[in-house]
Specification:
Four copies of one chain form a homotetramer. By secondary structure, the first copy, chain A, is mostly helical. The first copy, chain A, is built from nine helices and no strands. At the A-B interface, helix 8 and helix 9 of A face helix 8 and helix 9 of B. The structure holds a DNA duplex (21 and 21 nucleotides).
DNA sequence: AATGAATGAGAATTCATTCAT
DNA sequence: AATGAATGAATTCTCATTCAT
């Protein structure tokens, strides 16, 4: 047990790697539990038990229950940003808007599958200012990006009107994507593109 | 028990009127508290305190915390149905679709003002099968009514497609209406009509 | 977790020993409280306070108040069985019946002293199916053992009659033993032997 | 309602008769409830509901829950005394002891049927000093009467010994009578006589 | 760092009892 | 006298968090 400790300097890593794994396990367990019973009803004991980690360890990494949710939220946000960055690379201003939507929606779809239900679960958490705002941050970010992209495509539009239209698009798309539990989830996600195209078409310069 | 009740017109059924008021106070307090902290975090003690009613009285009317939420939900639903019935009276199949939307949205707007935030607060309550489904019931009902109305206006549409389109409209409208806390709430609600009209125009028979 | 346990002999499984003690304290306190006010009236807070243990700890060991009573009951039953096993060893069929009674009664007396009053207190607990049946189990067990022993000593007796006589003996003895609070408790316990001998003498083969 | 009030002086009675009935209903309901769930678990609300009497009325007659039990206890005691008085009339010192036992047991049997289960239910009520002592009073009274009767039948016995023997008899008989829920209840009650006769025979002067 | 036993504030709910009507 | 709505102290039990080991 203590035998190999001094052999290699690299030996410092394992701890960190273990910690890393621990954290992963905790977060994974937390997602599970939050999904099943919601944030308020979830207990840190249950999370630590599922993570096969002692409750003490859990608190070593996260000072309280909310912190776990925040970590999860932050992580979601990071993931999402990466996906968006990829989808909205250089040419995003040139390609037809419909193609852009395709890209973005496919990115969001992927995100939604990866984070299946977590977002919804989190969104239901009352009094979670911090993370609620993470979700809001996320939505706001998409709105901002869309708005920016539309600047070039709808030069005649008043900025305020453009903002509102962008917001409208994102809110609707978000709502249609968040129908996971409902029938026709797939079809509804597809409709997102249709309804947005129909909505924006009149103001889009070309296409 | 109720003897002598007719002697004085004043003070009709004092018990009942008082009880009525009590219940009102409890429900009003519950709305307040649910709004502020969400259902799970809300405490019956806090509710009874705000209602200036003893905790025992609260439990005389509602056997547990969920019952209060259910009462609130049921009440919302009733209100909403009445509003919709009014908005969708006899001529709702003949008038232009846009006019119909105006009516419905103004009804929903009124509802949304009356029940400001409650719905959203309730919707956030995790694991509240009963009332969550009340909200769902409400949405489903609007979808059904819209679908029915669209039958006459979009005779060429496949039923399934029509269903999905109706659902899409309602989901989007709902999402746009539920932005109370955000800036531009009013404008977003107005956009609901625009986006739905743009979306449905291609399939609407006349107008 | 248990690593290094062998390094020092001292401090063996501290957790377990402490826990053990805690449980003991809780049970002891519970006995005290149950005795004083009865099961229903006893409160878990009072028990934990007397045990000088936090209420949370109490619930860590026993999920609810009844569980404490059950633990107490189970323990009694175990104790009693051990005592009986000892008293009714191999030769119990050969020795004179009176000698057998002496043995059994002295075992029961010891038990009664050890568990002073607990049994009575428990027996008074209404609606405690589980433990009431533990007491019943205990009585039934003694009846069974006595019946079995009498088979050899009263071969002419109808089985049903034998069963009833055994039951009669045990019920009477039990009642006489459960007079702890009354004057002459000791004398009454002694009478148990007399009355049973008088009752059985006519049907006993030899002696 | 107020109309006939002044017609006859006798008119005062009805109130009393009604009250009487009310009290009867309350007591009857209380017996039912106590039997079903025991004293502690019984609620005054349940009792008043079953008695079809308002909770306020109940408290008009009995200042608290215990008072109801006490009333029930007192009543039992009265009933019992009457029965005993009848069974132990003048000639009770002359008739053979066995005949006496027959009389007493048949009286007790009747009592036990009339009060089926109430006694047992009451006996289980913890912390009911007052009524527990009613039961004790009852037992003590029987002991005293038996002791007195035995004075003439066992002149050679030491008084203390006689007291203990009387006590033994009563305790055993009581225990055998209180087996209502058990199989063989009838047979066990019959054994009471047998065991007591066997026990006392050696010291009884004649017979 | 890890463990998990221990803590205790706090929540839901009940029910004996009061008192305005 | 009767009624039953109202009261709120008291009880059971939970769970986030701490801390000795």
């Amino acid at each position: 047990m203590r035998a190999n400790t001094h052999i290699l300097e690299v030996r410092k890593f394992p701890q960190q790697i273990r910690s890393q794994r621990r954290v992963e396990k905790i977060l994974a367990a937390a997602i599970e539990v939050f999904r099943e019973v919601g944030f308020e009803t979830a207990t840190t004991n249950e999370i630590s038990a599922r993570a096969e980690v002692s409750i003490g360890s859990l608190y070593q990494f996260y000072p309280n229950k909310s912190a776990i949710l925040n970590a999860l939220g932050a992580r979601c946000l990071t993931d999402l940003r990466a996906l968006l960055d990829q989808a909205l690379s250089e040419d995003s201003l040139e390609i037809p808007f419909e193609a852009l939507l395709d890209r973005v929606f496919s990115a969001l779809h992927m995100f939604s599958i990866q984070n299946d239900g977590l977002f919804a679960a989190i969104a239901k958490s009352p009094t979670l200012g911090e993370f609620i705002s993470a979700e809001q941050q996320f939505i706001d970010e998409i709105i901002r990006r869309l708005e920016f992209n539309l600047e070039h495509r709808t030069p005649n539009l008043e900025p305020k009107k453009r903002h509102i239209m962008a917001k409208t698009c994102v809110i609707c798309a978000h709502a249609l994507f968040e129908t996971r539990q409902s029938e026709h989830h797939g079809a509804l996600m597809l409709e997102a593109k249709t309804i947005i195209m129909a909505y924006l078409e009149p103001v889009l310069q070309n296409r």
